[in-house]
What does this fold into?
Amino acid sequence: MTLYDEAFARGARHADAPLRPVGLDVAPDGAQTHAVMSEQDLLTVRHAVRSATVAAGFALVDQTRIVTAASELARNAYVHGGGGSLTIEVLGHGARGGVRLTVRDNGPGIPDLDKALTDGWTTGTGLGHGLGGARRLMHEFGVDTTVGEGTTVTAVRWNNR
Ligand SMILES: Nc1ncnc2c1ncn2[C@@H]1O[C@H](COP(=O)(O)OP(=O)(O)OP(=O)(O)O)[C@@H](O)[C@H]1O
Ligand SMILES: [Mg+2]
It folds into this structure.
């Protein structure tokens, strides 16, 4: 199992630093889970994430950042993971609020996460910008992936930064 988070990405490699999915210390106001099994589901997910960002009080540019990240992660689960799900949680409204995305699949997993996060690196026909791009659009980002079992990506964007 490989676990990746923002601190790790920035080179803060402390052997005993907790490696964990991000943002789990905040209880959500509400959660909704959507299937990501078709092109239509990808559209549905975009609309649902947009609505959640509105509910959380994000301005238009941030709404679009979060929708874009969700779209890339959902597409990865669909294309590379053979389908999965996306859970949207609203972590309060306004200045102290945020949105957490959790995208799961039971696909092949990611053997080399550093490569997968590198812009331009792809095993498919895409540009290879999705995963790294999604990470840059969000404030917190974690990937929990096991080869042969699947991948879970957790990402949070806060409204006060
Ligand atoms: N959920 C996943 N399951 C398995 N492999 C994945 C998953 N997500 C990403 N990958 C791997 O990481 C690589 C990079 O992903 P990334 O989203 O950056 O690019 P891409 O999907 O290939 O192209 P695009 O720019 O269209 O997103 C993929 O080519 C794939 O090998
Ligand atoms: Mg992609």
Observations:
- The pocket of magnesium ion (ligand 2) is lined by residues 72, 75-76, 126, 130 (CB under 6 Å).
